[in-house]
From TrEMBL:
Keywords: Hydrolase, Membrane, Protease, Transmembrane, Transmembrane helix. It is a single-pass type II membrane protein. It is an enzyme of class 3 (hydrolase). Its main location: membrane. This is Signal peptidase I. It comes from Peptostreptococcus canis. It is found in: Cell membrane; Membrane.
């Protein structure tokens, strides 16, 4: 290969490396605002189904969330698949790009009450500040178990899954009140399956 050909090849390799690093930097910037995630389980059914792919709005970490919002938060529950083994380089790179360095499980739930709210659950009826909630997102055959009568501390949220009979959420000590600081973002759009693509409410 001629000297000129070698220079041309070297130039192309350098350009490819530049593009690769630019793509990484762009991805890191983008995930400050949005992030993809996948639903694992049926705790939010019928609103969300197992293996739905979502885009979450990460700006809500700073602007705050409201009652009725569906949020993703970093729980204190260990990831089942995490056996303590060293993460692979690929996994570490993906965690860096997605800004996820946690060894605990992300949960998808609906915000039922915010800091200062009085949440009460009795005989399957949910009320916030003495007003019974009209929860059209719950299927008619679902029942909200629990006996709760508490005031949500400031800076915390009370979150439950829409599939109340199959949801580990704020009703149980394993999750409890969710610190706002653990919010990853609010669910914005469902990407997959294509048949259900659109804004999630």
């Amino acid at each position: 290969m001629s000297q000129e050909g070698k220079k041309g090849l070297l130039h192309e390799v350098v350009e490819i490396i530049k593009l690769f690093f630019m793509a990484i930097i762009l991805a890191v910037i983008i995930v400050q605002f949005i992030r993809p995630t996948r639903v694992d389980g049926l705790s939010m059914y019928p609103t969300l189904d197992n293996n739905d792919y979502l885009i979450i709005n990460r700006i809500s970490r700073y602007t705050g969330v409201k009652r009725g919002n569906i949020v993703v938060f970093d729980s204190t529950l260990p990831i089942d698949a995490n056996t303590g083994d060293e993460k692979s380089i690929t996994k570490k790179m993906l965690d860096f790009v997605l800004q996820d360095d946690s060894n605990t499980k992300d949960l998808v739930k609906r915000v039922i009450a915010v800091g200062g709210d009085h949440i009460k659950i009795k005989n399957g009826v949910v009320s916030v500040n003495d007003t019974v909630l009209k929860e059209s997102y719950i299927s008619s055959d679902n029942y909200t178990d629990g006996d709760i009568d508490k005031v949500v501390p400031e800076g915390y949220l009370f979150c439950m899954g829409d599939n109340r009979m199959r949801s580990l959420d704020s009703r149980y000590s394993e999750v409890g009140f969710v610190p706002e600081s653990r919010i990853v973002g609010s669910v914005f759009v469902r990407l997959l399956p294509v048949s259900n693509i659109g804004i999630v409410k």
